[in-house]
Amino acid sequence: MSHQSMSDLIEQYLKSILNETEEEIIEIRRSEMADLFSCVPSQINYVINTRFTLAQGYTVESKRGGGGYIRIQRVELNSHDEVLSYLRKSIGDQLTYKDGVAVLQQLYNYDIISKREAELLVSIISYEAIGKQNPSEDNVRAAIIRALLDRLRYEEKR
């Protein structure tokens, strides 16, 4: 039997709501979600900050305070060039392994790279290849993925 974490359950719930809406956008209240899942509001923040990122194909807008909300929108891009540009803009100076894998997953989902290419690239950005103890690990990973995206954008324009 599979034991899902609270974060997994919250993520699945939010994604199921997103799948049901035609606009591909939802608006939630942090406190209401916390009450629904009997957890602290910071758990909701954690899920949103780690599982609904730009690299994973989502934009998040939040407003704090009494009338505060969190708005999650799935980003649907129409061309390879839009996907590559969007992903390139989403990568800063650092990129965690999880976010790197999410970028590669998006490239695969949009048929920009093959499954084999994605698997090879995952091994290149892995902890084993870059070094978990390397203090600039996330910087190296970001540079690798940025170079990949730039190259793919160059090929797309030819």
What does this molecule look like?
This protein has a 3-stranded antiparallel sheet with strand order 1-3-2. The chain is globular. The protein is 59% helix and 10% strand. It folds into 2 domains: 69 residues, Phenylalanyl-tRNA Synthetase, Chain B, domain 1, CATH 3.30.56.130; 78 residues, Transcriptional repressor of class III stress genes, C-terminal domain (Non-ribosomal Peptide Synthetase Peptidyl Carrier Protein, Chain A, Orthogonal Bundle), CATH 1.10.1200.150. Strand 2 and strand 3 form a beta hairpin. It has 8 helices and 3 strands, in the order H-E-H-H-E-E-H-H-H-H-H. The relative contact order is 0.11. The mean pLDDT is 87. Helix 4 runs antiparallel to helix 8. With 158 residues, the protein is mainly alpha-helical.
